[in-house]
Amino acid sequence: MISANLSAIFYLISGVLFILALRGLSSPETSRQGNFFGIIGMIIAITVTFLSIGNFSSGFIYVLIFLLVGGLIGAFIAYKIPMTAMPELVAGFHSLVGLAAVFVAISAFLNPQAFNLGSPGNIKLGSLIEMSIGAAVGAITFSGSVIAFLKLQGIMSGSPITFKGQHPLNAIILISIIVLIYLLCSTQSSNIFWILLVISFLIGFLLIIPIGGADMPVVISMLNSYSGWAAAGIGFTLENTALIITGALVGSSGAILSYIMCKGMNRSFFNVILGGFGATEQSANSSNKEQRPVKSGNADDAAFLMKNASSVIIVPGYGMAVAQAQHALREMVDTLKKNDIKVSYAIHPVAGRMPGHMNVLLAEANVPYDEVFELEEINNDFANADVAFVIGANDVTNPVAKTDPQSPIYGMPVLDVEKCKSVLFVKRSLSPGYAGIDNDLFYKENTLMLFADAKKMTEDITKNLG
Amino acid sequence: MEIDPFIFRLSIFILSIFIGYYVVWSVTPSLHTPLMSVTNAISSVIIVGAIIAGLAGNSDSVFNSSSIFGYLAISLAAVNIFGGFLVTQRMLAMYKKKKKDK
């Protein structure tokens, strides 16, 4: 058994290692080292916890068994999961953090002596507040992430589910959570604790169902943030520095990512949270739309255009992930490069279903990361490029965002694809994107629509290039 | 008058938020997905609370209502720790620079 002071120092060290783990992600070169720091930090935290309890008798073996079972499941998932399923995986992991926080809070509530928090029915006030906040946020994280997971997995429809009185209902539930925490602190009643948990699960569910598929980057980041605050709440209860530091890091990390995602869509955080984007008012202006002519082509035309280009910019989007076209795309690019054509990739901040989604897929397909650029880095290059190859993206290329103040996406930063000499647009049909608005780009003089599955089209182009 | 230890923890918390703020802004956007998976893994340090709860059962009853929740939380957090770090490692291994051999 080691002293409380010594273990506190070790917890501090593991907290610092977690900071270094995030710091490492500032560049791909240092990132692997950062991940290693994170692992060391975790090993220190777990080891110190065992040593500080020093009770290796009865329960120890069960702790190890559960640890190993969980670890094996986790490792199995980590090795098996395809990269295209990363958003679902992250949402699933968030739900586990949330549920773990809830379970820890429950055990602390049932057996406060083990945590030095007082005795059942007589828990220290501060600890009770921290515990109930941790539990409530954890429960919201859990049920919210489960819904996000189901939506991403396609088990639940990705379209927003809204009903009358939704916002007042949510407001009432949020207020009642605060009231319940107050009542719990004054009465210490376990019934109130259980009601609090149930209601928190419910609000997590209600908060996420009105949010649509393409808003998932914001939702996932937000849940990431919540899981951090839940951990921090429990950290205060357990008086554990490692947990407090980590909770704060993760909480602010998720908050920043949500902010970046919201900015990428030019929408306020509340606008996203209140949900229902694209479900209501847009139907009106899509009805009076006249049929405009589009130019469509085949793989042969596309190959011809690209062969004669000297620089090509690729704009991937969620459709590329759905079609699993990243490998085929890289093969096409390899062929282009053999013909001395300069190729770069342009990534919009909200392309895909989670922050950095496209980057991971391209990395999986062995695309070097120094060929992949963010919106601000590459947007001026479109004017000098010969061909823009849009694969699976739509709204993020829509010039309407710059020209039409009436448009729901007006003001959203978009890739200036239309400035290219010619635009190749791989798409299954002319259907509008997530925002429910028509993309002007389809009808431009210099746009060639390639109606096909993204993967098949890319493969065909490669054949024609050869 | 003595300062409540809570204030110290609060200070650590607030300062860590600021550290998180600056550290996360310096993360390159192309690594935002690994950022999420690694934050997932590290927030599972909540396992320390689960271990305390799991070991709290006394010798005649290893399983009581409190320790059972502890055990469950241990396996949930362990899924995340192993899964989170390993999947991050798998992703990061894919980020390669352009080969300069041509």
What does this structure look like?
- The complex is a heterodimer of chains A (466) and B (102).
- Chain A contains 18 helices and 8 strands.
- Chain A has 466 residues and is α/β, with parallel strands linked by helices.
- In chain A, helix 15 links the parallel strand 4 and strand 5 (372-374).
- In chain A, helix 8 runs antiparallel to helix 9, helix 12 crosses helix 18 and helix 14 packs parallel to helix 18.
- Chain A starts with a helix and ends with a helix.
- Helix content of chain B is 71%, strand content 0%.
- Chain B is flat, with a radius of gyration of 20 Å.
- Chain B is mainly alpha-helical.
- Chain B has a domain at 29-95.
- The longest helix of chain B has 30 residues, at 65-94.
- The chains are: A alpha/beta (466), B mainly alpha (102).
Report how far apart the termini of chain A are: 69 Å
Overall body shape of chain A? elongated
Give the helix level of chain A as a range of percent: 55-70%
Along the chain, the helix and strand elements of chain A come as: HHHHEEHHHHHHHHEHHEHEHEHEEH
Number of helices of chain A: 18
Q: Biggest interface pair, residues each?
A: A-B, 116 and 85 residues
Oligomer: heterodimer
What is the structural class of chain A? alpha/beta
What is the helix tally of chain B? 4
Poorly predicted parts of chain A: 277-288
Structural class of chain B: mainly alpha
Count of distinct strands of chain A: 8
Task: Please indicate the percent range of residues of chain A in DSSP E strands (runs of 2 or more).
Answer: 5-15%
Rg of chain B, nearest Å: 20 Å
Form type of chain B: flat
Q: How confident overall, as mean pLDDT of chain B?
A: 87
Distance between the termini of chain B: 71 Å
Average pLDDT number of chain A: 86
The biggest sheet of chain A amounts to:
6 strands, parallel
Tally of DSSP β-strands of chain B: 0
The biggest beta sheet of chain B reads: none
